[in-house]
Design a protein that fits this description.
Number of domains: 3
CATH class of the largest domain: Mainly Alpha
Order of helices and strands: HHHHHHEEHHHHHEEEHHEHHEEHEEEHE
Largest sheet: 5 strands, antiparallel
Helix content: 55-70%
CATH architecture of the largest domain: Up-down Bundle
Strand order of the largest sheet: 2-1-5-4-3
Number of strands: 12
Distance between the termini: 89 Å
Length: 486
């Protein structure tokens, strides 16, 4: 059964023979069905309110159209016209009232009352009131007087017709109740299936190893992460004792105590030592819980394993990624700030000079344009490696973007020592780079400032070095400028 099933199916029995009215009756019935489906599915209140508003607005539109037809044929002051108009007002008032209490729509009793009222009203309205009015209109079209047309309608709407109306109404009332119950059941089942699918996806994609056992400790299910952890296939693991699959963890005295505590309290979590399939020991965080039935009888144990060693490795990898350039592996701008602060403190403490330098490759853009970005990346990696190898242990080279690098050279005794070291670096960069059987040569320009000769803060030191790089670029290729020098 589909959630789009109608709680109030349209039937030819409801046709009055007046096309405009019948078309609008079908629309009104569809709005009722739409409201019922939302309520059966326990939709959000905002959605239900929207449908209620739609039902009210359309009912007003339909009633205006219908009343216009009756007034045109029967007259505005006719008793039947006025009675029909009053029934329309009563319907709208009741729908507005029900909308006001729709905040309790999740209560099945409230939903049943709403659907029951709308179903019964529409049945009586269409089968009795509108059908009688349509018979009168058809009589007038045949040339009867209004009195004759009403008399003819009364003859057709005899006791047999009332029996038919009651039978149809009973059928629809019963059908709507059963349909609503089935829609609710189907909706609840789908929500439960969706929750199970979501839970299954979470378990399958979890980075933690998850296993389920029966009361005897035999594995009934595992996720891919657990299979990777024990280096075994799922089918081979099913039915195996968990103590045999992970003996160092569960066949040990601490492991047996954990199992007993989880069985007693329903839950246990803590750190344990486990031997990997390769023989190495690792620290793991184990969470072991029981699954019980409605009578509180334990049915299964569910365990979750997190490798603390792997967590530490992942944290180190994340930290490295956050502080290092992805292409060259050099420190990035974020790590550079920390290294610069440390180098300045060391320079003040030891009374030595610190060279803060900007290095930029000359005419690097044509390399990318002519040979492509893949070759450009190879050049950047080669230059980064050359600079790193030329520096001393306490020095730093960072890539801060594009073909621009920052160097921190500490423990310098004299300004001339800094100049000699930087000039050697520039000569190292200009050496040919071999790749794919070809050789490529690039040069670099450099701007620098010396701390504490330049007594600026970290931001100003970098700005001064950048200014010197700009002047070095203006001098030509492979040039060096140092802040404060003439």
């Amino acid at each position: 059964m589909s959630l789009n099933a109608d709680i109030f199916p349209w039937s030819s029995t409801f046709a009055t023979g007046i096309e405009a009215i019948d078309a609008q009756h079908q629309n009104l019935v569809e709005l009722l069905n739409k409201l019922a489906r939302h309520m059966a599915a326990e939709a959000e209140e905002l959605t239900i309110y929207t449908v209620f508003d739609e039902l009210t607005d359309y009912a007003l539109h339909h009633f205006q159209t219908e009343e216009g037809i009756w007034r045109r044929h029967l007259g505005a002051d006719d008793a039947d016209t006025l009675a029909h108009q009053q029934s329309h007002h009563d319907f709208v008032a009741e729908v507005v009232r029900m909308r006001g209490v729709a905040s309790n729509v999740h209560a099945s009793e409230t939903v049943d009352q709403v659907i029951s009222y709308l179903t019964r009203w529409l049945s009586f309205h269409i089968l009795e009131d509108d059908t009688r009015m349509a018979i009168i209109v058809r009589g007038l079209h045949r040339g009867l007087s209004l009195a004759q047309a009403k008399e003819a309608a009364a003859g057709e709407m005899n006791s047999a017709a009332h029996v038919l109306i009651t039978a149809v109404l009973t059928m629809y009332d019963s059908l709507s109740s059963r349909t609503l119950a089935l829609l609710r059941e189907l909706s609840q089942r789908r929500r439960m299936e969706e929750k199970l699918r979501l839970a299954s996806n979470i378990i399958e994609s979890s980075a933690d190893g998850i296993f389920i056992t029966n009361l005897q400790g035999l594995i009934t299910d595992v996720n891919p992460a657990f299979c990777r952890h024990v280096q075994g296939g799922r089918e081979a693991l099913l039915g195996q004792p968990i103590t045999a699959v992970m003996p160092s963890l569960f066949d040990s005295k601490p492991g047996q105590q954990v199992w007993a505590l989880a069985a007693q309290a329903g839950h246990w979590s803590g750190e344990l030592s486990n031997r990997r399939p390769g023989g190495d020991f690792e620290s793991v965080w184990l969470t072991l819980s029981t699954v019980k039935d409605a009578a509180e009888h334990t049915l299964h144990f569910v365990g979750m394993l997190s490798s603390i060693s792997q967590l530490v490795e992942r944290n180190h990898a994340l930290e490295s990624a956050a502080n290092h350039d992805a292409l060259t592996g050099l420190p990035n701008r974020r790590l550079l700030q920390d290294r610069l602060a440390q180098a300045m403190e060391r320079s003040k403490r030891d009374g030595t000079l610190l060279a803060v330098c900007f290095l930029d490759l000359d005419q690097f853009k044509p390399v990318n344009d002519r040979l492509g970005h893949a070759v450009g990346d190879q050049v950047l990696c080669a230059v980064a490696q050359r600079i790193a190898l030329a520096l001393r242990g306490a020095d730093t080279v960072a890539r801060i973007g594009g073909d621009e690098f920052v160097l921190l050279l500490g423990d310098l005794a004299q300004p001339e020592e800094a100049r000699q070291l930087l000039e050697r670096l520039l000569l190292g960069v200009v050496q040919p780079i071999a790749f794919d059987g070809h050789q490529l040569q690039v040069s670099a320009s450099m701007g620098a400032t010396l701390y504490p000769t330049d007594p600026a803060d970290a931001t100003e030191l970098l700005r001064h070095a950048d200014q010197m790089l700009y002047l070095a670029k203006a001098d030509g290729r492979a040039c060096l400028r140092i802040f404060g020098e003439v």
